[in-house]
Amino acid sequence: MAVNKPQNEGARLDNFWMPFTANRQYKTTPRLLAKAEGMYYTDVEGNSVLDSTAGLWCCNAGHSRDQITDAVSKQIKELDYAPTFQMGHPLPFELAERLAELAPADLNRVFFTNSGSESADTALKIALAYQRARGHANRTMFIGREQGYHGTGFGGISVGGMVNNRKAFNSQLLPSVAHLPHTLDIERNAFSKGLPEHGIERAEVLEQLIALHGAENIAAVMVEPMSGSGGVILPPKGYLKRLREITAKHDILLIFDEVITGFGRVGDAFASQRWDVTPDIITTAKALTNGAIPMGAVMVSESIYDACMNTAPEDTIELFHGYTYSGHPVAAAAALATLDIYRDENLFERARQLETEWEEALHSLDNLPNVIDVRNTGLIAGIQFAPSSEGIGKRGYDIFTRCFYDGVLVRASGDIIAMSPPLIMESKHIDQMVSTLERAIKQAI
Ligand code: PMP
């Protein structure tokens, strides 16, 4: 039986068509958050809810940080908006420089967007523009991966591999996309700690796809270094390096979607650095502004930027792409304040230091009923349950609601519970998350 606890009876809930939500189910038992500070939300009834998900993988520095809210209010009073088409203001230039300092290798050129979805589509478009600029106009195909999530634009859902996100729109997806197999292998890797041992051979499928479609037709391979929305699917040891070797051998771009792995989530600025694999393009969003203001960024290598610049006459627009809010001053101010916090509080390093404690606490759940896998890397966890006889996803949803009414926000994706706490987390928060989950798992359907 799912836990039902009506909240906020006075609120009018009809008009908002909620994203990625079972609207009718939610509206019968709404869960409404009113405030947030540090590690905690407070709901509209005044209950405190520990945030084990950093919102939606966004609030890596914890909630409602004064430095960010102050920077935002100061900026909105000073310069609320300024265009960045043939015009500019200093903040995105400063932010791009700061991001270049954090980025791996020479991924120094930064294109600003407003979300992860826009970052994904921007990266795909830059890949096509680059291939055309360097005289490889036939390279128009993309290779994504099953269970991959790159947001909800048409590019992102085409290259992504989430069945439900594609099937309603199937007739209108990008025409030439192939997919690698995902790397989830519970049979061989269940309950592994950190990156799984088995599965590097799945990277070899890339060679087969390239042989089938022809390297001369492929623009880019796009994957999340660690697939979050697809169910916390970790890269097997050596797998990402193999993707890099194969793409380099065939002169194909490698794009890492680091929308959730960026900004300390796996104990380094980017997963690319933690796992020592340098792609040609990195997409980001979410924790770039600590979730406070929407913003995304796409970081590309010098050679991609140069190819686009050098093939166009100096007085023409080199890339016909952009958003009204690219480099928005208020978002940029939020991002700069966020990056200051990450640096001043050493939060990426802190994530790495907490990793072992986090891992050990999570694996105390290994032997509970219906738990078929516990996986972790950085400050990320995926706990997978056998589906209940009531249907796929019912047990995951039941555990999610039980945790919420017991004071901990987790995320359910089917029968997988995902956690990605703010990097400011302390031991007492780990204890609360794990003991709450334990209770929920024991009582669940
Ligand atoms: N890429 C990845 C890897 C993501 O996890 C997400 C969001 N969960 C996105 C892209 C899309 O981001 P947004 O919702 O900001 O468009």
TrEMBL record:
Enzyme class: transferase
Molecular functions (GO terms): adenosylmethionine-8-amino-7-oxononanoate transaminase activity; beta-alanine:pyruvate transaminase activity; pyridoxal phosphate binding
Keywords: Aminotransferase, Pyridoxal phosphate, Pyruvate, Transferase
Names of the cofactor(s): pyridoxal 5'-phosphate
Residue ranges that the Swiss-Prot or TrEMBL entry lists as coiled coil: none
EC number(s) recorded for this UniProt protein: 2.6.1.18
InterPro entries associated with the record: Aminotrans_3, Aminotrans_3_PPA_site, PyrdxlP-dep_Trfase, PyrdxlP-dep_Trfase_major, PyrdxlP-dep_Trfase_small
Iron-sulfur found in the keyword field: no
GO terms of biological process kind: biotin biosynthetic process
Family: Belongs to the class-III pyridoxal-phosphate-dependent aminotransferase family.
UniProt name for this protein: Omega-amino acid--pyruvate aminotransferase
